[in-house]
Amino acid sequence: MILSSIQQKANIGKKSFAVLIDPDKFPHENLIKMVTAMESASPDLILVGGSMVMSKVESVVAVLKKSIDIPIVLFPGNLLQLTAKADGILFISLISGRNPELLIGSHVAAAPFLKESGMEVISTGYILVEGGASTSVEYMSQTQPIPSNKTEIAIATALAGEMLGQKLIYLEAGSGALNHVPQQMISAVKNNISVPLIVGGGLNTIQKVEDACRAGADVIVVGNAFEKDMSLLQDFKRIIHSF
């Protein structure tokens, strides 16, 4: 079980390393290179999805499933990014925003398919944090991120998500963010919730990844950083698994 593995590691202070693959940025030839890089880096999870995704998620998941033995988890930006070929899905509710489609509307539409698929469905409270630049997720979701200096709002939002029954809280600065989620906010949210905390967006250097780990993130998600330099995967793995 994907969730139980994350929980067990978090309970003993161990970190999980997740790689985010946006199918639009990894056409088939680049995906093969990515598979080779991940075979040696061996992240704990592979997330597949993005804010837009014009490419077929199903074909990307099929290549990954055929090539490597790592849990493949959907990170869908919309209903077109669903496939039963994945091992699980982050069933994301964008709790930092007030767009009803992303709070519950799309979930209702997807629920029958997900039940039929048999994949592991992991309820996740998604909190978008201002990262110094307008991001794709901000534009596509039509929601405003929480200001990076409003830690108290992030805490209250995370608490509400946990109280509503969400099993994971995801603090995200957005793909391509100039600034990652502040360490102070990560620490404050972690200290106020009892479910595992995922952190992603803007983690494009070894130092930033290490800072997020030290601040209390249980799962570190990296994406844009390795698109031009896949060798970073090994460095990120080393840092994350050293905690």
Write up this protein:
The chain has 243 residues and is α/β, with parallel strands linked by helices. It has one domain (2-9, 17-240): FMN-linked oxidoreductases (TIM Barrel), CATH 3.20.20. The chain has 9 helices and 8 strands. The protein has an 8-stranded parallel β-barrel with strand order 1-2-3-4-5-6-7-8, surrounded by 7 helices. The two termini are 22 Å apart.
Search tags:
243 residues; alpha/beta; TIM Barrel; eight-stranded parallel barrel; 9 helices
CATH-defined superfamily: FMN-linked oxidoreductases
Helical percent range? 40-55%
Q: Just give the CATH class.
A: Alpha Beta
Which overall shape is indicated by the principal axes computed on the Cα atoms?
globular
In total, the number of strands is: 8
**How many domain units?**
1
Question: What's the total helix number?
Answer: 9
The description of the largest β-sheet is:
8 strands, parallel, barrel
Query: What's the CATH topology name?
Result: TIM Barrel
How far apart the termini lie comes to: 22 Å
Radius of gyration: 16 Å
Element order: H for helix, E for strand: HEHEHEEHEHHEHEHEH
